[in-house]
Predict the 3D structure of the following.
Amino acid sequence: MADADEGLTGFLQAQQESGEDKTFEVNGTEYTTVQAANPVNWSKLAQAIALSGIGTLSIALQGIVDRWAKAVTDIIGALGSFIGDVSAGDTLSGSGVIGNLFLPLLQYYRQDLWAGSIEQFGLWGYPVAVGFTLLMLFVTVAGLQRAADRLTGES
């Protein structure tokens, strides 16, 4: 029995002197011996610390991106109320920029622009109504283009 203990003790002492972890197998089961003086595997500990730091940074960046995305969504939602809408029923009603820009035009067309032009201008009423419509479209599109240029800083 003393020889068996001396063999194991000698094996462990040889392990400590070499400074490396050794792997050996007994009856199909694999074992790893570590240094008795320092049993901590420092490379795996450093890897775990580094990966937890990377994970923390990743979570922080995801939080920042989520906050920015929520801010952009809130801005877009607020723009909907600024831009507004026009609802047509028995009476026209509108809100926001669209309501203030287009509601008077819609009311004028609703008062039967075509019939009024025919009564005032006779046969030339149709070209007058088409010309007025094209003029209103031109003014609207040109105004929107200039507004877009000012918003983008190109003017």
In short: Residues 42-83 form the longest helix (42 residues). The chain is about 70% helix and 10% strand. Strands lie at 22-26, 29-33, 85-88, 92-95.
